[in-house]
Design brief:
mainly alpha; two-stranded antiparallel ribbon; 10 helices; 66% helix
């Protein structure tokens, strides 16, 4: 009956809370990434045969295909890693996991007003950081790193056109809906190597070259 349902719902929320708080504690222990973390990794990659070689190998795999929405979702996670941990947690639960405001505040153990403050700060920061990052990287309105990755794929595996994600809400919607797929192996390499660079502060954040772009030259 309803009593049993309420007990199960309360238990599920409690479990979510434990997992979420453990995740936030983990985030607090991790070094925050630079906004330009992907730029730094690309520069390191372009100057290293080892790093660029593993990218080319992953992009040459038979099951690899460039999926722009999958890459936008990955990029969203990278930029989100530059937020304060509490703001990142609120953003992910509300805008990516699509939990309600009530569920999010309950799971995080914070008031509705604190959640609203954290979300507003996180969303504004993400919009501002993307505006700066995309202006830094864009050529004709498209991030040349995204375009460079697309060109690594065979012509019949380059996916659809780049969607308009100039607005934060549109970008968050793509991140929410995208699932790991044909780019998962490459993104795993990107994430691991980017984390290594961010842990040590390695790599220039001035755009230079996209990793693997000159693989066929």
């Amino acid at each position: 009956g309803m009593a049993g349902y309420r007990e199960e719902a309360a238990f599920a929320t409690w479990v979510h809370s434990i997992v979420a708080r453990a995740a936030v504690d983990h985030l607090r222990k991790q070094k925050r990434w630079r906004v330009e973390a992907q730029v730094a990794y690309a520069n390191l990659c372009a100057g290293s045969e080892e790093l660029s070689g593993e990218v080319v190998a992953a992009a040459s795999a038979p099951d690899f295909a460039y999926e722009v929405r999958e890459h936008i979702s990955y990029c969203f996670a990278c930029v989100g890693r530059s937020l304060p941990p509490d703001e990142q947690a609120a953003l992910v639960m509300r805008d990516v996991m699509d939990l309600s405001a009530k569920e999010t505040s309950t799971v995080l153990g914070i008031s509705d007003s604190v959640l609203r403050h954290r979300l507003a700060a996180a969303r504004t920061a993400m919009q501002d950081r993307y505006a700066g990052l995309c202006a830094l990287l864009s050529k004709q309105g498209i991030c040349h790193q995204c375009e460079g990755l697309k060109m690594l794929a065979p012509e019949d595996k380059r996916g659809g056109p780049f969607p308009d994600v100039s607005d934060y809400a549109e970008r968050a919607a793509v991140a929410r809906e995208a699932e790991p797929g044909s780019m998962a192996t490459l993104h795993d390499i990107f994430w691991r190597r980017t984390k290594e660079a961010e842990d040590t502060g390695a790599g220039s954040t001035t755009p230079d070259s996209g990793c693997g772009e000159d693989a066929d030259d």
